[in-house]
Specification:
The chain is 27% helix and 29% strand. It is α+β, with helices and mostly antiparallel strands. Among the domains are: 2-97 and 220-246, Jelly Rolls, CATH 2.60.120.340; 174-211, no CATH class. The two termini are 25 Å apart. It holds the Pfam family NPL.
Length: 259
């Protein structure tokens, strides 16, 4: 999985890869400070055989960014464009193919080369092969002399003690059992590296690795159109205007919430 980003303008831009999926997760107005307050910019998309669909509508100083969940499958294309004065930056990631086949081929080649190597016998074995008659005679004498001792040492095994404490089974870590059992969540307080098929985030079960559930068969614009419709931009702006006003912080610092 690798980071991916692009900048969109009024001229339509076509995106798509032959060997990997592209997942778009974020969109925002580029250089919104250079635009006048209240400027409206819209992001539109169109797949092959369909018409233009509005994915997001932005307004400077009010709603300048939004999360997205658009998947452009490998081998397919999606055309995007912007309407209004301004450009839009989109970002996400690419899902690259796994290298399991390459690694398995390397392991099999190493095992074959190891089998072809001739293993030389230890010095003791070469000595026995050099004197087979003497070795056989010594082995027969050793067996004959050890038989009485072995018979004398035979002792009836003791009966098992039912009250004996059984060894405790060591506990299994939650992360390991979840990963082996195929669960959809692996608890982890911090990011410890990429895991195939999982995404690190904070969700309903806490912070950790969540299984990256593939989207429905309707991908691209069809998947975006299937999402529930949001309320109008004007209604949304009225409800969140107070939340996004400039606020005073420590040391005279001013800030506002754009999430």
């Amino acid at each position: 999985m690798s980071f991916w980003a692009a900048t969109l303008h009024e001229k339509p831009t076509t995106i798509g890869e032959d060997e990997c999926d592209i997942v778009i997760t974020q969109a925002c107005i580029q250089n919104s400070g250079a635009l006048s307050a209240g400027t409206v910019v819209s992001l539109l998309a169109m797949s092959e055989g369909s018409s233009w669909v509005t994915l997001a509508r932005f307004r400077t100083t009010e709603s300048e960014s939004t999360p997205l969940r658009i998947v452009v499958a490998a081998g397919s294309e999606l055309t995007l464009k912007v309407t209004g004065k301004g450009a839009v930056d989109i970002a996400g990631y690419q899902i690259l193919p796994e290298d399991d086949e390459v690694e398995s081929e390397g392991v099999s080649m190493d095992s074959e080369s190891a089998d072809e190597e001739e293993v030389s016998p230890p010095p003791g074995k070469r000595k026995l092969e050099a004197h087979p008659e003497a070795t056989a005679g010594k082995a027969a004498k050793a067996d004959a002399s050890s038989q009485p001792n072995q018979a004398a040492k035979q002792v009836k095994p003791a009966a098992p003690n039912p009250t004996a404490q059984q060894p405790k089974t060591p506990p299994v870590k939650a992360g390991a059992s979840a990963e082996v059992g195929g669960a959809d969540f692996i608890a982890s307080p911090k990011f410890t590296g990429s895991r195939a098929g999982f995404v690190f985030k904070k969700g309903a079960k806490g912070v950790g690795y969540y299984r990256d559930t593939p989207p429905s068969p309707a991908k691209g614009v069809a998947a975006a159109a299937a999402q529930p419709k949001k309320q109008s931009a004007d209604g949304w702006a009225k409800e969140t205007l107070a939340q996004r006003e400039w606020k005073a912080g420590p040391g005279g610092l001013r800030f506002r919430d754009l999430t």
